[in-house]
Design goal:
The protein is mostly helical. The protein is built from 4 helices and 2 strands. A two-stranded antiparallel sheet has the order 1-2. Bound molecules: zinc ion. Zinc ion binds next to helix 4.
C-alpha cells in the first residue's frame, strides 16, 4: 500500500524539480551560446569550448543559488518559483560572462605563413602582414600570367609570319 504511493511521490518530485532545472539549464545554455560569440567570431571548436565552460559555471551557480534560496524558504510547491527565477538569472548571467570572457581570450591565431601569433575578431590563418603581401602578390601573379600569354602569342605570331615568309 505504501510502496506505490511512494513511487508516485517520486514521479511528482522528479517533475517538480525537473521543470526548474530544465527551465534554468535551457536559459543558461542559451546565454552561454550568446556569450561564446559576443566579441570575436570563433571557429566552431573554440566556440563550443567557450560555450561549454559557460554552461558548466552557469549550472554550478544555478545549483548554488537554488539550494541557498530554497533552503531559506519553507518547502511548498509555490516556493520553488523564487529560487528557480533567481538561480536562472544568476546562472545565466555567470554563463554569459564566463563564455564571453573565454570568447575574448580564444581569438589567438598562429600565422600559417610566418608563424607569428596574432589576435583577430574573425577566423584567420594569416597575420596582417602576410595577408597584405598575399594581396599584393595576387595581382603580380596575374600580371606574370598575362605577360607569359602575350609572349607565347607573339612567338606563335612570329612563327606564323616566318612560315608565310618562307612560302612566298
Ligand atoms: Zn604572417
Amino acid at each position: 500500500m505504501l510502496a506505490p504511493n511512494l513511487d508516485f511521490l517520486w514521479v511528482i518530485v522528479a517533475v517538480v524539480y525537473g521543470v526548474p532545472i530544465l527551465f534554468g539549464s535551457t536559459i543558461i545554455i542559451w546565454a552561454s551560446s550568446v556569450g561564446a560569440q559576443s566579441v570575436a567570431r570563433l571557429a566552431l571548436d573554440r566556440r563550443l569550448l567557450a560555450m561549454s565552460v559557460g554552461v558548466l559555471t552557469g549550472l554550478l551557480v544555478f545549483a548554488g543559488v537554488f539550494v541557498a534560496v530554497f533552503s531559506s524558504m519553507h518547502g511548498t510547491l509555490l516556493s520553488l518559483l523564487p529560487p528557480t527565477l533567481l538561480a536562472t538569472m544568476f546562472g545565466a548571467l555567470t554563463a554569459f560572462k564566463a563564455s564571453a570572457k573565454l570568447n575574448a581570450n580564444l581569438n589567438h591565431y598562429k600565422c600559417k605563413n610566418c608563424g607569428a601569433r596574432f589576435r583577430r575578431q574573425f577566423v584567420s590563418d594569416r597575420c596582417d602582414r602576410c595577408a597584405e603581401s598575399a594581396d599584393r602578390s595576387a595581382p603580380r601573379r596575374d600580371r606574370i600570367a598575362t605577360q607569359q600569354a602575350i609572349r607565347h602569342f607573339a612567338e606563335r605570331y612570329r612563327e606564323l609570319q616566318n612560315g608565310d615568309d618562307s612560302t612566298t
